[in-house]
Design a protein that fits this description.
Blueprint (H helix, E strand, L loop, with lengths): L2 H10 L1 E11 L8 E3 L3 E8 L1 E6 L2 E6 L2 E5 L4 E6 L5 E10 L3 H6 L4 E3 L4 H15 L4 H27 L6 H12 L6 H7 L4 H12 L3 H19 L4 H7 L5 H12 L3 H7 L1 H5 L40 H21 L24 E6 L2 E6 L5 E3 L4 H5 L6 E2 L1 H4 L11 E2 L6 H6 L4 E4 L1 H6 L3 H8 L2 E3 L6 H12 L2 H22 L8 E8 L2 E4 L7 H7 L3 E2 L1 H8 L5 E2 L4 H4 L3 E6 L4 H11 L3 H5 L2 E4 L1 H4 L4 H17 L3
Parallel strand pairs: 12-15, 13-14, 15-16, 17-19, 17-21, 21-22
Antiparallel strand pairs: 1-8, 2-7, 3-6, 3-8, 4-5, 4-7, 6-9, 10-11, 17-18, 18-20
């Protein structure tokens, strides 16, 4: 099926929710047969059944979606007494015969992100069953977001070969639901993983945890509302998920350095040029929710707030770009007619014969025409890779710029997290390079980024050899990439020879990270694991090999620490984990590494990145620690 064409028909067709019914075996509401008089979705939310749709049988279990059209006959054969589903009936007003046929087609879909769809079905059903026209109107407004989520997941599955980036999906969920109470555990539960595993992925992809990112999104949204409306601070706080205006104000000041009112006052001149300034109407007061004073877990109830600020991401992203253009014009009219003062110089002088030439580059989002020799690159994640090839980007994101192993980043502009459209546009990039999570984090997503400059979405390999080769191709620096990889391979060979007299053939290595309230074992991706196990070819313990490298274990309990510790231990202790370290030391001292004293202390912040420049320095540190301990 041509999903792009089908989605395009949804975008141009007037649709209306006609009815939503919940069927359950246990209360006898499930019909044996049903003849559809309009288009419909069947959403299995519980149990398992064999569903016949126009003569074709489907095996359904939670969560499973079927679509059919007028004249289709449904048959239900429950495989147990707990089967439940929603039947969502809708009408599509189509002018063209091919459009009408598209809405009558039968197809099935198994979602990879279940909870958002289940929540939308529950909300539609609850609202539809109310008697007031206002509730039914809201149910109507909830139908299209349901369809959008279905089509989004179908499109992602079709275009990305079924590979779903959990961080990208979680970012999408946060952007769509930041007004609601969200905890790390609930977010992880949507995608069937533990909160610690999701936190690990977030930190690897964005440099901060999921709840930290949620707070950044809320602060970012509140700054937009302060500049683009005259709404009261209480109303803005409620619209971004905080019912307590005092808590919101403290949080806002913590992240921006000033109060919400001071932020608005300091930017008053900017607001005057904002085309959305007419949004002056007051917002209906929101009901209060309880919270505690912990940034991560302050929500105790599940009801979110509805606000007048519910713009869709693409629409709001387009508005941002329009606002940005006007703001930049205003800045230029104030006498800044040249390159912005905060803007670093061009990467290279455009003097060679390739200046202005372009080529087609294939990436995760398709094909994009990019410069053969890009001069002004904004890289949202891969910073060390560019610097390793002698290219200094004009902009990058906050947490990537904080890498302590990267030097001379002072003149690289910080575009923020989430990435800020105005800042990126002011840098006048000719190429934007991003990972899928950072593309999703941008207001309006990849499409909005692409309107600023040619944008490509690349893999996050966390492998300097692959990354350098990839960016050598992107930047037209193939020769520099080849030389870097050859030099790195030579260095690895020299270091292997250097440590070989001190390492026994059967010696095993482990990496333990002690944090406040938690213990983590690392595999072969970062924190020195890629260096130990991949490059130097040293052996992990059997438990690290099976449970961490080949499994999904990351966070462990204190009592099992000895099971993972080998003959040598690399230990990273985070600030504030003194209590946990004392407990761990009692267990480590009886391990092979503890008995021989072969414990090497490493800096967590230095060993978290996995870009080429960081890995080279980490390699030097690791080899030096092992050699010096044997002198």
């Amino acid at each position: 099926m041509d999903w792009e064409a089908h989605i395009e028909r949804w975008s141009r067709t007037a649709v209306r929710l006609l009815d939503i019914r919940q069927y359950r075996v246990e209360n006898g509401t499930l019909p044996d047969r049903y003849l559809a008089h309009t288009s419909f979705f069947v959403v299995t939310t519980q149990g398992e059944a064999k569903v016949s749709l126009s003569g074709k049988d489907y095996q359904t279990r939670s969560l499973h979606i079927l679509h059919g059209g007028k004249g289709a006959e449904l048959g239900f054969m429950p495989l147990g007494n707990d089967f439940a589903c929603y039947l969502i009936l809708y009408n599509a007003e189509c002018a063209l015969p091919e459009d009408r046929e598209s809405f009558r087609m039968s197809y099935e879909f198994i979602p990879y992100a279940v909870l958002p769809l289940k929540e939308q079905c529950q909300a539609m059903d609850r609202l539809w069953q109310q008697s007031t026209p206002l509730d039914k109107l809201q149910a109507q407004s909830a139908f299209l977001p349901f369809v959008h989520e279905v089509m989004r997941q179908i499109r992602t599955s079709a275009t990305e070969s079924g590979k779903h980036n959990l961080v990208t999906e979680a970012i999408h969920y946060i952007h769509e639901n930041y007004r609601k109470p969200i905890t790390a555990e609930e977010l992880a539960g949507i995608y069937g993983c533990s909160a610690s595993y999701l936190s690990r992925l977030f930190k690897s992809h964005l440099g901060l945890g999921p709840i930290e990112y949620l707070i950044h999104v809320r602060v970012h949204k509140s700054k937009q509302f302060l500049l683009r409306s005259e709404a009261r601070v209480q109303e803005i706080a409620s619209s971004v998920g905080y019912s307590d205006v005092y808590y919101f104000s403290r949080l806002f000041k913590k992240h921006t350095g000033c109060s919400p009112l001071q932020f608005r006052e300091d930017n008053r001149q900017t607001v005057q040029h904002n085309p959305s300034r007419p949004l002056k109407s007051s917002i209906v007061s929101q009901k209060h929710v309880l919270h505690n004073d912990n940034d991560n877990y302050y929500h105790l109830i599940r009801e979110g707030d509805t606000s007048m600020f519910r713009f869709s991401r693409p629409a709001f992203g387009a508005m941002m770009l329009l606002c940005t253009t006007l703001l930049l014009n205003a800045c230029q009219s104030n006498g800044n007619t040249g390159t912005p003062a905060s803007q670093p110089a061009s990467v290279e002088a455009a003097t060679d014969s390739t200046a202005g030439e372009t080529r087609i580059y294939e990436h995760l989002k398709g094909q994009t025409e990019i410069p053969v020799k890009p001069r002004r690159v904004v890289s949202l994640f891969h910073l060390g890779e560019l610097i390793a090839l002698g290219v200094k980007p004009v902009g990058s994101t906050t947490f990537i710029l904080k890498n302590p192993l990267l030097s001379d980043t002072s003149d690289i502009a910080d575009v923020g997290v989430p990435p800020n459209a105005e800042k990126i546009m002011s840098l006048e990039p000719d190429l934007i390079v991003t990972t899928a999570p950072f593309a999703e984090a941008f207001e309006g997503g990849y499409e909005a980024l692409s309107k600023i400059a040619p944008t490509i979405v690349v893999e996050q390999y966390n492998d300097p050899i692959k990354d350098v080769e990839m960016f050598g191709d992107i930047l037209g620096k193939q020769e520099e990439a080849r030389k870097w990889n050859e030099t790195f391979a030579t260095k690895i060979a020299e270091y292997k020879e250097k440590i070989s007299p001190f390492i026994g053939a059967d010696e095993t290595f482990s990496i333990l990270n002690v944090r406040p309230g938690a213990y983590y074992i690392y595999g072969d991706t970062n924190m020195g694991g890629n260096i130990l196990y991949k490059y130097l070819g040293l052996k992990p313990t059997d438990k690290v090999e099976t449970d961490v490298i080949k499994g999904e274990t990351w966070e462990i309990s204190a009592e099992v620490i000895p099971d993972f510790i080998g003959d040598r231990l690399f230990l990273a202790v985070n600030e504030g984990a003194e209590k946990e370290l004392k407990e761990a030391e009692k267990l480590i001292q009886n391990s092979p590494a503890g008995k021989t004293g072969r414990i090497y202390n490493i800096d967590f912040n230095q060993f978290l990145p996995s870009d080429p420049i960081s890995v080279e320095q980490q390699l030097d540190i690791i080899v030096s620690l092992m050699v010096d301990s044997n002198k």
